[in-house]
Specification:
The protein is mostly helical. The longest helix has 30 residues, at 329-358. The chain is 80% helix and 0% strand. The radius of gyration is 20 Å and the shape is globular.
């Protein structure tokens, strides 16, 4: 299997995990109601928060365990199968009489499994040589396309039956697990280390705090759109679940299609410009969605926000791989996903609570200004890291290989 084929298969795996996850988002209001949680935004908030709380807890554990084992794919396949089982149990909850508190517990357990599939697939991409921007661009386009497809078809499935997205998510994760066991791995050449050692070595690279912080804010905006964006388009413009899914797709399609070229661009020009300038424009675009006077302008703003997000995301992930030691890359990417999952949690909580107390406009202003603020506050640190030896030259090095 060539490196290109490995990269494609891993990207398909990442895509599948995101498809399964986003199947639920457009119809989250209907799904939560069917599972006994009611239709208000706070019930939807806790439904999404439960899964991401498990993501936060277990992302680094999976990464460090794979560093210690010296294998990623068997663990990733196990995580996908566990996630599939969680979705099937959710679909059976009304029949089994599981109360909504029990549904949230199932979400916790399923999330603990699913993050293994997601995080380890991205880590395996980072293990490949050929340019960190290229590899993270492949991850980014898979994430974006998975979210785009999941949002479109998830809305249609939810309109047909609120439980259909759960069955579709389970089937997708089973297919992902089968795919993962067919993939050969290209781990760093360093010897295996214990789980505790992998986590401990992260403390020796405090520079990772910079991309982790940007990752937190970026994912916060994604969590915000996953929850508040759906309710915003449904309540403000009267869209059904399918229509809300199409509105989300207006963000995710350009976000997906531009990820790979943006990753390659960051290999050529460095990480600093995409991360800092892109973040400022991205935050302003979020505000534009919230102040749009009609659905057409709101959707156009979503397209612009998706394009700007594509500029930022792969460069931020690539900056992590630039500064992480090869033998602890799994734990480093796991740590990035921990902060990213914390960002999703913050997006759900901040967006849900702000919207329920102050309205949609206040929540869009708060989240958009947060993205601008982090770029202004931490921008100098990004420029310093991108031009220093800490980045290992990864931001400006183009690697060629016949197997690419």
């Amino acid at each position: 299997m060539t490196r290109r084929e490995t990269r494609i298969r891993l990207a398909i795996g990442v895509w599948g995990v995101l498809v399964s996850q986003v199947f639920l988002y457009p119809g989250v209001e209907d799904i939560v109601t069917a599972l006994g949680g009611g239709g208000e935004i706070r019930a939807g908030m806790w439904f999404l928060v439960a899964e991401f709380a498990a993501f936060v807890t277990f992302a680094s554990v999976w990464g460090a365990a794979s560093d210690a084992l010296g294998r990623r794919m068997p663990l990733a396949a196990a995580g996908a199968l566990g996630g599939a089982a969680g979705y099937l149990l959710l679909a059976a909850a009304p029949t089994l009489g599981i109360p909504f508190a029990g549904v949230l517990l199932v979400r916790l357990v399923g999330g603990a499994a699913t993050i293994g599939a997601f995080s380890l697939a991205i880590t395996a991409l980072a293990d490949l040589s050929g340019g960190n921007g290229r590899n993270m661009g492949a991850a980014g386009i898979a994430i974006g396309l998975g979210a785009a497809l999941g949002s479109v078809f998830g809305g249609r499935l939810a309109d047909a039956d609120p439980l259909y997205p759960l069955y579709a998510a389970a089937a997708t994760l089973v297919a992902v697990a089968i795919l993962f066991i067919t993939i050969s791995e290209e781990l760093p050449g360093a010897g295996r280390i214990r789980v505790g050692d992998a986590l401990k070595r992260l403390k020796d690279r405090p520079v990772l705090a910079v991309p982790y912080t940007f990752g937190f804010i970026d994912r916060m905006t994604a969590g915000f759109f996953a929850l508040v964006g759906v309710y915003y388009f449904r309540e403000s413009f009267g869209l059904d679940a399918a229509g809300a899914g199409l509105a989300l797709a207006a963000f995710f399609v350009p976000f997906a299609l531009l990820q790979y070229p943006a990753g390659i661009l960051s290999d050529r020009v460095g990480r600093a410009i995409p991360v800092t300038v892109g973040s400022i424009c991205y935050g302003l675009g979020i505000v534009a969605v919230g102040i749009a006077p009609g659905v057409e302008l709101a959707v156009l703003a979503m397209v612009a926000v998706g394009a700007l997000g594509a500029l930022v995301a792969p460069a931020t992930m690539a900056l992590v791989t630039d500064v992480a030691a090869p033998e602890t890359r799994g734990a480093a990417l796991g740590g990035f996903n921990v902060f990213g999952s914390l960002g999703f949690l913050a997006g759900f909580l901040l967006g849900g609570l702000t919207t329920s107390t102050a309205g949609f406009l206040a929540s869009f202003l708060l989240v958009g200004s947060s993205e601008v603020a982090i770029a202004l506050v931490a921008g100098r640190a990004v420029w310093r890291i991108a031009g220093s030896d800490d980045a290992g030259g990864g931001g400006r090095t183009i690697v060629s290989d016949a197997s690419e």
